[in-house]
Write a structure and sequence with these properties.
Helix content: 40-55%
Number of domains: 2
Structural class: alpha+beta
Strand order of the largest sheet: 7-10-12-11
Strand content: 5-15%
Distance between the termini: 50 Å
Number of helices: 23
């Protein structure tokens, strides 16, 4: 089925790119000055893009950084660092900044995923260009993926999956054991450095599909299993050290600090319109699934649900299509979590596959994301059905039935077409950081304590400023996953063990109340600043209760300076060797 890319194909691919740019138009208007719906994750990925630039241009260790959570650092293998993306795009980050790179990554996540599925469909699975274009459109721009484009480009980046799928399919061909298995292993390794959670869900989907297809057709499996063994060996060799760092290295953790099915898929959300679409309603979506736009993994709309049923009927003679449909159904049920819910607050009873939450490895998957695989399968089924109708196969035979199919597909797709993602203005970066004035006030790789201290629920501006400064200086704390209190407690948390100064400043930030500090408390603050190897302490102009924060710090550090739009205090040089990122953790 291989063919050259013609003008029609170029139009389809250009259309994907233009649609992605349309969806992200507000972000592209000012990448460094606009927040998406999820500013915490947006700031995190800006920091990850800055880290990729440091790996390439400064020789930093790729799997661990002390630029965040100084001086201990962050295990980047245990967080979604997207090294397979940040390192190739390091020149973009170097020239234009990490905010632009995040906009590029998110655009390519949507358009690139659509293009990758279009390639697989048009080159290997269907004949009709129209069918391939429809399948790619849904696989890249379905509601769940557009929802994750709100600050989580890793979960919208499904462009590696089609190539993994194709290599798995080709393992059954003669002579593909070594070459095909090795290529599959390399693709799996690349997928790990894009998003491990998505890769695990893909592996589950492929395992289910392969098992069901084998039941329906009973094909020879010896060569297929041998190719998988080669893929496992190659992937294992490439990932042995990174996985060692992830699960045993500094900053490793166990479990996640939230209930996996906290935002499990409600049954009623499956046939509802997505909130960010032509027919969508934010109020309706909130009633069905709550306020988390990010976990709107389904919201396919009633028309798509109907067309999936039509597609399955049209393709009922195909063992592959039946296996695909059942795989999608199983994954959808897995996304229900432990309780079958009609809406976010209305429980029907225990979910059929709720026990999977307790299965090792699966106990790390956020349950609604299983439905993202079901969403992709819908795109493949729609493409296969459209190809059957386009080629005027045995079903349906009547022209009226073909017209009804295309009309129904159009009526299903148009209401769920995505609207541009909404953004809000981020606080301007003070000139102290934007113009690099900070370089005159600290040196020797000492940290800058940005107040409010960056964390899961507060201090997002500090994380963003550090990222937009290319992580040229270390900062204490940050937004990341790490161990609660190692080595005794390695449970995963967003809030590593606090120190006196963290609790003090957080209390003032929340309440505005400024306590009179004792001499012992003065010493505790100074001890924390020495631990962080602070060069300067900076209070941002956007800090809530900033006057209180400045007063409490003045009690300990004396009168501040006002430079470049910030309030700052200089610290004396710390005693002891400096820690850098130049060598990987032991």
């Amino acid at each position: 089925m291989a063919r050259r890319i013609g003008w029609a194909d170029t139009v389809v691919l250009l259309g994907y790119l233009l649609l992605a740019l349309w969806i992200l138009r507000d972000l592209w208007a000012d990448p460094a000055g606009r927040w998406l719906h999820n500013p915490l994750d947006q700031g995190f990925f800006q920091a990850m893009m800055a880290h990729g630039e440091r790996v390439v241009f400064h020789g930093d260790a790729p799997l661990h950084t002390t630029r965040l959570n100084a001086p201990v650092g962050v295990n980047l293998m245990a967080n979604t660092s997207m090294l397979a993306v940040s390192i190739p795009l390091a020149p973009v980050t170097h020239l234009y900044g990490p905010a632009v790179t995040v906009a590029v990554v998110t655009t390519l996540a949507l358009a690139g995923t659509a293009a990758a599925w279009w390639w697989l469909l048009s080159r290997h699975l269907v004949v009709s260009r129209v069918a391939a274009g429809i399948g790619g459109l849904w696989a890249g721009f379905a509601p769940g993926f557009v929802a994750h484009a709100n600050g989580q480009p890793n979960l919208a980046s499904g462009y590696v999956a089609p190539f993994i799928v194709w290599q798995v399919i080709r393992l059954r061909e003669p002579g593909r054991i070594w070459r095909g298995g090795a290529l599959l292993g390399v693709l799996v390794a690349v997928g790990v450095f894009v998003n491990e959670e998505f890769l695990l869900i893909l592996a589950i989907a492929l395992g289910l599909f392969t098992a069901l297809y084998a039941v329906f057709t009973r094909p020879p499996v010896r060569a297929f299993l041998a190719g998988l063994a080669v893929a496992a060996l190659v992937a294992g060799a490439l990932l042995a050290y990174p996985l060692h760092v992830q699960f045993l290295g500094p900053g490793h953790y166990r479990g996640v600090p939230f209930r996996l099915d906290q935002y499990a898929t409600p049954v009623a959300s499956i046939a509802a319109f997505p909130r960010n679409s032509l027919a969508g309603s934010d109020a309706v979506a909130r009633r069905l699934s709550g306020g988390s736009v990010l976990e709107d993994a389904t919201f396919w709309g009633p028309g798509i649900c109907l067309m999936v049923v039509v597609a399955v009927v049209l393709l009922r003679r195909s063992a592959a299509a039946r296996a695909l449909a059942l795989t999608g159904l199983v994954l959808l049920v897995m996304s229900f979590g432990s309780q079958l819910r009609l809406t976010r607050t209305t429980s029907i009873g225990p979910a059929p596959l709720g026990f999977t939450l307790r299965v090792p490895l699966l106990d790390l998957v956020t349950t609604p994301r299983y439905a993202l695989a079901s969403t992709t399968i819908i795109g493949v089924l729609l493409a296969l059905a459209a190809d059957r109708v386009r080629r005027r196969g045995p079903v349906p035979a009547a022209p009226a039935a073909r017209i009804a199919f295309w009309a129904g597909l159009a009526a299903a797709l148009v209401p769920v077409l995505p609207l541009p993602l909404r953004t809000s203005a981020a606080p301007p970066v003070p000139p102290f950081f934007a113009q690099g004035i900070w370089r005159s006030y600290t040196q020797d790789d000492r940290s800058i304590v940005i107040v409010p201290l960056p964390a899961m629920v507060s201090g997002r501006d500090g994380m963003r400023i550090a990222a937009l400064s290319h992580l040229d200086f270390p900062i204490p704390r940050g937004y990341f996953l790490g161990p609660a209190d190692p080595p005794g407690d390695n449970a995963g948390t967003w809030f590593p063990k606090t120190r006196f100064t963290v609790d003090l400043l957080e209390q003032v930030r929340r309440t505005g109340l400024v306590p009179e500090l004792t001499a012992e408390q003065h010493r505790s603050v100074l001890a924390d600043l020495r631990y962080w190897r602070a060069g300067i302490v900076v209070v941002l102009p956007s800090a809530p209760n900033g006057a209180g924060l400045r007063r409490v710090l003045t009690q300990v550090l004396g009168p501040p300076l006002r430079v470049g739009g910030v309030t700052l205090w200089r610290m004396p040089a710390p005693v002891g060797p400096l820690r850098t990122d130049r060598q990987p953790p032991g």
